[in-house]
Amino acid sequence: MPPEKRIVGPETIQMLELGHPWVIADSYTKRWPPGQPGQVVELGDAQGRFVASALLDPADRVVARVLSRQRMVLDRAWLMKRLQAACDLRREHADLDDSTAFRLVNGEGDGLPGLTVDRYGDYLMVQLYCGGWRPHLKLVTQALQELLAPRGIYEKSRPQKTRELEAAGDDKRYGRLLSGNSAPDRLEVRENGLTFLVSLEQGLNTGLFLDQRKNRRDLMGRVAGKRLLNLFSYTGAFSVAAAVAGASAVTSVDASPGYSEWAQANFGVNRLNPKKSEFIVADCLAALDDLARQGRQYDIILMDPPSFSTTAKSRFTTRGGTSELVSASLPLLPEGGLLIASSNHQKLDLPDYLKELRRGALKAGSELRVISLAGQPEDFPYPVTFPEGRYLKYAICVKGARP
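The structure corresponding to this sequence follows.
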């Protein structure tokens, strides 16, 4: 039975012809006939001209995601071809010789919009950011098993209000085994030659943000003999990297006692004595005030907050909250010290993010000069036609006096 057709408006046609992979709900899509999530439909204009094949997700704001600019069937052969291409890209272009944890499929960047697959040692983690993939999950699992023969394949579910749940420290078991054997509760993986503990079942995230791999490696080249303050330290991956690379002192601050314990465990599996480093469980802004009152100074301050978080003392959002963090951090840095500010907030683009850094520097009466701007590594590709795919912002800035 041939795919059903769906007419899209002229503005959407223009976006699709420019290469964007999303159809956003509008007055045209509201007139579409009923459809099922996961249904492959043909998108066209009012004159009946074919534009693209897309995966339907009628209840979502993104009602359809482009799978191909040609007519196609979402079957094993088509899926295997896309998965193989994703594997080839990483083998040819990503430096993964000393890492066993990385992204294998990055949604729109690998022609599989709304689907990600991460590798954690001998295990794979699938995440569906689009309900249209739910009916095809068994096919995805079988194709991954055939292509890569992992020990086990997990799915980590994406509940509503993910940011709020994460901020509240929700550690329910959101991961479930789809095929193969179960992983240990704390699975050891390698990144940049270091060892980290991840959880494929517990919590909303696994405990290691794979998109920061190259940025952690960069930090390792900067910290020898330096004092590091790591804000929103999570499970301590940046802190471990700094300690292994010879930082003279490492202070990690996070509001979650559980994450602080996890960070100390990550120090332990890398044969680092956590007692030789400092772990502070506190709201980061409150901790910065305390450290300033103590007259503490650091050579490098790194901040990688979630885009949204709430503690008993404050509510943090990237827009507005970043400038407050910057202004509170700069008094703890000497001139020539490094402020490293990172954000994964997709809806805040780079120019607006730099404005947040500027506001913070002006409030603190300091100058900040950007010496490096980075994003996600090669295993997180994105099409140039999909600016939303370039979400990670990692700015390395040098503090100076106001001229």
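The longest strand covers residues 366-374.
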